Amino acid sequence: MSALVLMVLGLGAFTAGYLLYSRFISEHIFRLDSEFRTPAHVQEDGVDFVPTNRWVLWGHHFTSVAGAAPIVGPAIAVIWGWLPAFLWVTLGTVFFAGIHDAGALWASVRNEGKSIGALTESVVGQRARSLFMIIIFLLLLMVNAVFAIIIARLFVQHPTSVIPAWFVIAVAVTIGYLLYRRGVALLWPSIIGVTLLYASMFVGNEVPLSLPESVFGLGPAGIWVVILFTYAAVASLLPVWLLLQPRDYINGLQLFIGLGIFFLAVLIARPDVVAPMINSSVPEDVPSLIPLLFVTIACGACSGFHGLVSSGTTSKQVDNEKDVRFVGFLGTVGEGSLALAAIIACTAGFATLGDWEGYYTSFGAGGLDAFVQGGGVILASIPGISESFGQTLLAVMAILFAATTMDTGVRLQRYIVQEAGTIYDIPALTGKGLSTILAVGCCLALAFGSGGGGEGGLIIWPLFGTTNQLLAALTLLVLSVFILKQGRPTVYTLAPFSFLLFMTVWALLTQLRGFYENEQYFLLGLDAVILVTAIWVGLESLSALRKAASESSESSA
Question: Of 515, 115, 257, 386, which is closest to residue 249 (Cα–Cα)?
Fold first, then answer.
């Protein structure tokens, strides 16, 4: 089967979903109003609340939600065959992620830019909010620690990516200054910025940079982790217009161009998909397809982290409520396109089935390496692009996705600590300095928690997907309560909530048994905490949903 067929079907589904389904949801469920004064205007402070051009905001949102996970998840999940991964990515993007991401953004805009955790208090109740924030904090901890490890490993494995990955910071700061302090129009900074970024990739491909083998007892990966969190701490304290917005925007442009180049290469090469449609001879350690598929591919189909970004940073920058559809739904389509590219690269970027099976020898094998190697082969079909440069381009793409998510994740974790300080009347935690130190300190502790070298952050990777999907399900439930209180239909949020909750709890229970049998007691305890907390939040939310439904029926009687 030609990979071109998968590309056409996938992109066609995403396009139809945005043009048709997102319009229906925006007009009939959210009822977006251009006259509504958004928090970016009402609470404008020049730091977090900043009215933003919708293209710039889309760039921030898309690159913040599209981390390395929509590459890693599909790149692992194709071990079950390309069809299950393809179906979940396309259907999940259109009918699950779209309404989840845009819904969290809209609900936050309608509630003073509150995060989904803080919003839970007014929609469900105080106890549910406290429990919800525990899940959110744990997820952010996983996201930041794991993505730092992923970036560090890519820097070590692909030293050609170092120069372009860091050069983008200088480009972003320059664009932010030109836009917000000099009043320069968006077009020329965008063109020049993208051009310089791609030029830096050619430089990086010729001038690879590697760190020393050991500094203060740390290997190269550990050193990069420390550098990354030092940068993230500083970046989280800067005004969003200076670095976060322009960095995400220019990354968004570069990444969409990169995706365009990749899909062009698929059109030119028309490689065959060598992986099986359904893999009937998976390695012995591979778990069952159901329910693990739906938590292995979280980002790229539906992700609770997106709700944190939507209600954490993006909602504070929405200039016009009508932009919610463009930013929220189109950002989702962008991530789905990245997951689609990962599926194609990891199933059609190998010469034979035997070569593919050589990568997928166990569960978790393949991953980013399969994406970079396979995608590099496909990109080499374009005249003028070598396989080496194609691999550099894809490695930089993965790093920039992960880095922008990490930037946003650390800022969000600081918000959570500050919100906790406000809720529980701890003034010391409400300031930016201490809250940032605590947030980054927890992430570093996890990243180095299993014996140094920066490898510790990966010990909770098995729980990342389940926690992420669990948060998505609970976000959809809270959103359903909010929609019901507006007197509008909830089937479009309750249906995906029910499916996600069932699959995720099933996966958590499956993992509990596995952690116990393998004597992984840290993971076992963390899994149990997440499961109990989620059930508690779910029961509180269902109670609020029944109450809202009762009040709605009484008022209409």
Answer: 257
What's the Cα-to-Cα distance from 434 to each of 232, 309, 409, 418, 441, rounded to whole Å? 15, 22, 17, 9, 10
DSSP code of residue 78: G
- Selected residue with higher pLDDT from 215 and 356: 356
Q: Which pLDDT score, from 0 to 100, does residue 452 have? A: 47
Average pLDDT on 380-407 reads 85
Ordered DSSP codes for 90-129: HHHIIIIIHHHHHHHHHHHHTTTT--HHHHHHHHT-HHHH
- Residue 79 DSSP class: G
Q: Using CB atoms within 10 A of its CB, is residue 11 exposed (0-12), middle (13-18) or buried (19+)? A: middle
Coarse DSSP helix, strand, coil percentages of the chain, rounded to the nearest 5 percent: 75, 0, 20
Confidence at residue 557, expressed as pLDDT on a 0 to 100 scale: 54
Domains: count for the chain: 1
Q: How far apart are CA 113 and CA 275, in angstroms?
A: 45
In this prediction, residue 553 carries a pLDDT of 67
Instruction: Please state which of the ranges 116-130, 140-154, 295-309, 441-455 shows the lowest mean pLDDT.
Output: 441-455
Lowest mean pLDDT among 49-63, 123-137, 152-166, 302-316: 123-137
Mean pLDDT computed over every residue of the chain: 86
- 32-57 average pLDDT score: 89
Q: Which residue(s) pair with 512 in the sheet?
A: none
Tokens of 275: 């992986």
Residue 471 pLDDT > 70: yes
pLDDT digits over 321-352, tens only? 999 999 999 989 989 999 999 999 999 998 88
pLDDT at 325: 96
CB 400 within 8 A of CB 63: yes
Contact by Cβ (8 Å): 433, 338: no
Alpha-carbon distance 204 to 162, whole Å? 7
Rounded to the nearest 5°, which phi and psi values hold at 352? Answer: -140, 165
Q: Which range has the worst mean pLDDT, 14-23, 258-267, 428-437, 494-503?
A: 428-437
CA distances to 43, 44, 331 from 318, rounded to whole Å, are 12, 11, 14
* CATH number where 395 lies: 1.20.1740.10
What does the alpha-carbon distance between residue 154 and residue 159 come to, in Å, rounded to a whole number? 8
Residues 482 and 307 sit within 8 Å (Cβ to Cβ): no
Residues 6+ apart with CB under 8 A from 163: 200, 203, 204, 207, 209
pTM: 0.85
Where does the pLDDT of residue 459 fall: very low under 50, low under 70, confident under 90, or very high at 90 and above?
Answer: low
Rounded CA separation 315/42 (Å): 12
Of the candidates 143, 327, 317, the one whose C-alpha atom is nearest the C-alpha of residue 240 is: 317
Cα 79 from Cα 365, distance rounded (Å): 9
Asked if the peptide bond before residue 276 counts as cis, ω within 30 degrees of 0, the response is: no
Residues 6+ apart with CB under 8 A from 503: 290, 291, 294, 295, 469
In one-letter notation, the amino acid at residue 236 is S
Q: Which domain holds residue 284?
A: 3-556
Q: How many CB atoms lie within 10 A of CB 527?
A: 24
